[in-house]
# Entry
Amino acid sequence: MQPQHSPTHRTHRLGRLTEPQVLFPALALLLLGVLWFTTASLVRLELANARAAAVASTRELTETYEAQVVRALREIDRTLKLVAHVGRDADPAQTLSQLAGHGLLLPSLLFTVSVADAQGTLLASTSSDAPSQVAGRDYFEAARGTTRLSIGTPAPGATADDWMLSFSRPLRDTSGDFSGAVTISVPASYFVSGYEAAKLGRDGFAGLLGSDGIFRTGRSGDTVTAGMRTDYAQLVPDNDVEHLPVRLNVNDWDGVERYTAARELYDFPVAVVVGLSAAEQLQPAHARGRTYLLRSTAASILLVALMALLGRLSWQLQQSRQRAAREQIAHAERIEYIAQHDSLTGLPNRSFFSHTLHQMLALARRHQRPLALLFLDLDRFKLINDTLGHDAGDALLKEVARRLTDAVRASDIVVRLAGDEFVVLLPEQCDESSLTVVAQRILSAVGKPYDVLGHQFRVTVSVGISRYPDDAEDEESLIKHADAAMYHAKESGRNTFHMYDPSAPQPSLERLSLESSLRQALERHEFNLHYQEQRDLNSGEVTGVEALLRWQHPQLGLVLPHQFLPLAEESGLILPIGRWAIETACRHGVTLQTTHGRPLTMCVNLSARQFADPHLTQELKNILDASGLEPQRLELGIAESVLLANVEQAMTVLGRIRALGVRVAIDNFGASYSSLSTLNRFRFDTVNIDGSVVRNYEHSPEDQKLTEATIAMGRNLAFTVVAEGVETEDQAKFLRDRACDKAQGYYFGAPAAPPSATDTRTD
Amino acid sequence: MMLAKPLRVLGIVGALMAGTADAQVVTVVAADSPIDTLSRREVANIFLGKARQFPDGRPAQPIDLPETSAQRSAYYLAISDKHPADLKAYWSKMIFTGRGQPPPVVDDAEAMKNTLARQPNAIGYIDDAALDARVKVVVVR
# Structure
């Protein structure tokens, strides 16, 4: 499992890196790290370079200084040797004067040459200031016992801050005994006059250190000193011509830390000491380092600010993206909710139901749990819709939905399937007794009185119940069986419930399939019209045709109008079907006029719903305009019962139809009400005497009287009388004798197919 | 004639003042020297060892009076603004670093005049009171 999990985990962690609250701080830290590492390296490099430069410079200055000092000392030594040599047996004053005259002595401006006898008494000097007795002076006493140059310790000079250095060599008489000494005195500052502040700095150091550890002279900046003591052995390394070590130490004579080098001179008992002040030499590097640090600090602040800004912007961007995503999801959820819910009642709809039923069945199957499906259909809902209007119907549905939801548990699911059909899904509540309780609760809840839009009424519901797994294993059968049980409930007088019973006959099954295929019949062009001729009883000529609707069902074959029209009427499908019939009849009417060569009346029957349709007149007008049939060639048959249902409205509608120029026929006259007064109340063009009346006249005196009266009234009130369903010669003769205008029926001809097969199709 | 010249020099180089109001130090060369005039800078360069020749290309040999003489201090102050201590430090450095040697010294004005008379390339300075035919005054601009 672990190897399978880790990649996702890693991806997740990497993904977190791109989140602004992680990315920008991380980036800032990284950049700060690089910045400060670089800065530290630069500062270190600067210091290292400065140190290296100071060391190199110290070494170079020491070597230069060494060369200068050696030369200066050699000049002094050579002069001393010269005086000692020339003046060995001569008068010292004369010797000095002669040598000076020849320019063989050092410039008197700085150098004083003196000669003393063995007792230290001055014999001659180039300066009048020379001391007359030098016995006891260290340079003089040192000259006694050596053949080398001796260098005296610094002595105060003429002025307070001036020091004098004296160099001497012994004089030997012919026997080689000490006979005196030649001395050269020079200001100590002479040996450090080469000090250049440009190279050594204000705090550098250059000086001469005697091997006795006493500085003969030393200079730092403009200050010349002499006589300081230090540890010669420690300061001056063993002579190494090749390599001059430079050490960083605090010079103990003045407490300044310097890169210090010292070299013992060849042939002279002194060493040159040169130092460069560490503080002074490294100061530029330190200054540059501080500049780097300052710049880095500024850059860091800028960087942090920039990253903070970027981070904030990015965070805001992410937030707005997430917000947009959330809105999108919310929108999608809303859309899904809308798609899965009924807008009127707010209950889940068929789409949700199909989905949920599938899932619940799967769950029930897996956990071996039962599931019950209740199929509900309001009784006579259409009546309420038709009588109280759609608004009342909608309000009723809402109230029913509310009562249903209240009647079941929250875990049960109430769905509005379509129209007045509801479904309740009950998980785990499936024994017959508890289902009975639920069903009765539903019946009583729905059955309570309603008060909607000012109307008080009662509505009942019929409930069919099927169960998984007892009645059905799959969704389709579960629904089908509940539906079948519901129709049983309807058939048992409504306002009741029925459990599914497989042994019960299933007429409702046919009805169910008929209704669904009726919905598709128009699209599949399964309807067509047949025409039955109407003849003038006197002349025998064809005066018109009546359009009769036929349904050619793909499986059931020919389905007759009385088999499907009630269903169509109830479901409302009659409207599109009726419209199609009028449209088609009108087109065929035009064709028939042409083929027949004479005007013919096209008779089409209107259903009750069509007659009540407020769009009827407008549609008629459109159809007539589109087909080109003259309005007076169209005759609409309306059943007497339809007219009588709402007389006021019927009169208005009839008026509108006739205003179009379309003829109106009272259809099925005599079939039910047999009220002659009807004929007085309405304005119409034709009366169609129902076939049952015509066929019965021989046996029923009432029917005979009705027929005769109708014909007589037609003559008086100037409407055409058409006898329908004429099947025999006797019937025809009876009618002819009574001077009936027209007749139709099998006696004159069976309904026939339309003029041309291709014309039966609607476009 | 002889008196007019130094007066003119004095008029130009008023700074060449010795200790007393009427004692003036003047730049001198041998009487037969072709040098008549030099700039103050040229004179200073010759005496400080920075120039070894006169502007016309002939070698120049400066001669000093003793360090103790008042004329010497006054002269150097006039031509180079240097005091004796400055000069000592200057020459100390020049000698130590091997870049030059101070001029040779004669004992007094008389010795100076003799030396100048002997050496046509020599140049020196004396109190104007000591002027005579052996030397001539160089006009310093």
